[in-house]
TrEMBL record:
This is Amino acid ABC transporter permease. It is a multi-pass membrane protein. Residues 289-310 are annotated as: Disordered. It comes from Streptomyces venetus. The chain crosses the membrane at residues 28-48, 68-96, 108-128, 224-244, 256-281. Residues 72-278 form the ABC transmembrane type-1 domain. NCBIfam families: HEQRo_perm_3TM. Its main location: membrane. The keyword Membrane applies. It comes from the Bacteria. SUPFAM superfamilies: MetI-like.
Amino acid sequence: MSSDTITEPAPRAVEDPAALKIVPTRHYARWAAGAAVVVLVAQFVHGLATNPVWEWNVFRDYVFSETIVQAVWVTLQLTAYATVLGFLLGTVIAFMRLSRSPVLSTVAWTYIWIFRSIPMIVQLVFWFNLSALYEELGLGIPFGPVFLSVDSNTLIGTIGAAVIGLTLHQAAYAAEIVRGGVLAVDHGQLEAAAALGIPRLRQIRRIVLPQAMRAILPTAGNEIIGLLKGTSVVYVMSIGELFYQVQVIYGRNGRVIPLLLVATAWYVVLTSLLSIAQYYVERRYARGADRTPPPTPLQRARRLVTKEST
């Protein structure tokens, strides 16, 4: 009895992977969406360039005029004063709220509740009219005799009222930003520092705040940018900041659109500079967590130029 021999087919030769043709996936919807966006952007740019209502000649005449530059300087001063004083006061209020003292924590919570509830413009008008409530401000013994008194308008003034209003408003938000950053720090590190006998103030200054800055900076940077733009509300106090001066100029010559464009351009430039500063400050405080931070845009540009030249 003979048995048939079953012959298996020879295995197919495996092609060289390097010789295989790689076909990329077609993303037709993505291309269509990109093309639509490009068309819309091109239409917008074309409108900016060709629409005579923009009056670019008027824009060029006023964008670097002495009046506008001085108004920008006033805006920067208000922003700087309110930022520094607001975050200093906000840091104190944040630690008051984190305190175990019920008096300090209640006062801090009440302050934050009140000043976050009242619109900024209402606070500014209130401080501007402080003399109607207190004609004089004095220094003396509480509930006792007054040794020194000064007229309210003389002591505070218009700029002072604006700085006070912006600072007190900013401090309420800064307190919550700082408190959130402090709560993000691992409590075990404070316990370890206390076990080593490190004083409480040094714990806060050398351990808590450096680590909390990583959580504080993104929100704080956003808040400062918002404050820069929020200084425009001081126009109700007739302070010569950027938006007020723009209003005065287009009230005289009737060129509303190009003057608003002047204000827009300056706000874009100033917020862009603040965003760049925020990026580098965040990068500095991230060194403890990220040993090799990604290259900055300037470093990437240098590497690209070096690569192309070689």
